[in-house]
Amino acid sequence: MTDAGNDRKPDAEDDPREAGPEASGTDAVDASGDGPRQQTPAEAATDDGAAPQSEPRPEAEAAREEEPEPEPEAESWEDEWSLDPSLPARAAAAAAERDVHALKRLVEDLHAADLADLLEQLGHEMREAVVQVLGADLDPEVLSELDDDVRDDVLAAMDPEHLARAARELDADDVVYLIEDLDEDQQQNVLEALEPVDRTAVEQALNYPEYTAGRMMRRDFVAAPPHWTVGQMIDHMRAHDDLPDAFHDVVLVDPALKPVALVPLSRIMGSGRDKALVDLKRDRMETIEVEEPQADVAYGFNQYHMASAPVVDDAGRLVGVILMEDAMEALDEEAEEDLKRLSGVGDESLSDKVWEITKLRFPWLAVNLGTAILASLVISQFDATIQQIVALAVLMPIVASMGGNAATQTLAVAVRALATRDLTPANMRRLVTREAVVGFANGVIFAVLVAVVEILWYGDYKLAAVIGAAMVINLIAAGLAGILIPIALDRAGADPALASGTFVTTVTDVVGFFSFLGLAGMVLI
After folding, report:
1. What is d(CA 290, CA 212) in angstroms, rounded to the nearest whole number?
2. Beta strands 249-253 and 223-224: pairing type?
3. Distance separating alpha carbons of residues 348 and 341, to the nearest angstrom
4. pTM (2 decimals)?
5. Are the beta carbons of 427 and 500 closer than 8 angstroms?
6. What are the Cα distances from residue 195, in Å, to 143, 166, 185, 357?
7. Model confidence pLDDT, tens digit, residues 377-405
8. Alpha helix segments (H runs only) across 343-427
9. d(CA 374, CA 379)
10. How many other CB atoms are there within 10 angstroms of residue 59's CB atom?
């Protein structure tokens, strides 16, 4: 039975605009025929039989004279998607004053990822204060968005009861990432707070090696036998209120729980109820072994454009699924790790303390010192030559610097190609030859340029020829070192991103100095 009052058309008493032009404040018909317009106070007074006012009322005059405020400029893309720069300072101030209400007002509308960014931008003490002031009001989803080092700080600052409550609200795979680095006592406290089913899933995941599919996979998935129809599948999903929060495919399994096909959810929703699920399966299904390395999983998803993939144990039984977003997150982690290692900074993050950063950077700086000493020893062999021709000391850094930059360019491409498996034995010779030719071409071009500079500077044509020849030699060496050194390290089982930079720089320095000073000694003295 519907409520008639809600459907009743409003009369004049409800809305003066429906009462006609006699009502106060109504719309009059514009003489121009353009439609209704609002009557002015003078016109309303004339209709009532009163004499029109000679001057408008002050309020009306002020309204007419008041200019409309300019519309605010639309926010740029960066402003729309980035955190308010003033928010960390305001949150820190509220936390310092222990103002719970003010702090909650600042963060209550933030997405979990934005709140994670806020915590990451705060210092250690302020971050701890914010977490403690928020207490049980801290969104549990924030814990899965934080960087590892920041998450450790947040977990240490959380009350054990709040941590246990947060763990109960997270998915099992997020809980695994949450507690894998905790002490045993802390892990046990969190596990005891979980439901028995979730606790079993988390404990099983922790038994798998870190950075493997077993740690990545989600243990909540939707599976069905191949003979089911679309109608049966839909009825089954509607009857269960514990479906995964996100899934792309239904996994078809045989009686032994071995996956046989994937059926996209979109095809199920777009097909008739009598359609068999097996007729809607994807053309290809890739299964992932539970101990497969995370890097290989990410490569497979990226290579074959998979939306999801089943994870199987040693017996081939389905134990979980990995979604595209999980694989892409792992791919980003691998790329970030390679970039950091290529720069010699290891696992450093913005939240690390001074001493921690110092320890991480020291080893490779020490190695670089050793290689710099090696380059200096090469220079020392030609000290007599340098004393006779002072211009050599001025010009020789040009050769080494150009070689180092050229090698870095090649190195970045080679390391990335090895990571994505685009550099293989099948195309290795062609790519090595290409880099040598590119080095020769750039060497010739810059040899001419630097020779011209030397002639304008010193007017010595022989010295110009020497530095030009050294430039060609060093850029060829840079191209070869930039690709051969990471290949050699990869063949030896070492991470090419971790050690290549130092060795490549050493090669270009030694070859650059030796070729330039050696040729100078032969030609000029």
Report:
1. 7
2. parallel
3. 10
4. 0.65
5. no
6. 19, 13, 18, 39
7. 888 888 888 887 888 888 988 999 999 89
8. 354-380, 383-388, 391-419
9. 9
10. 9
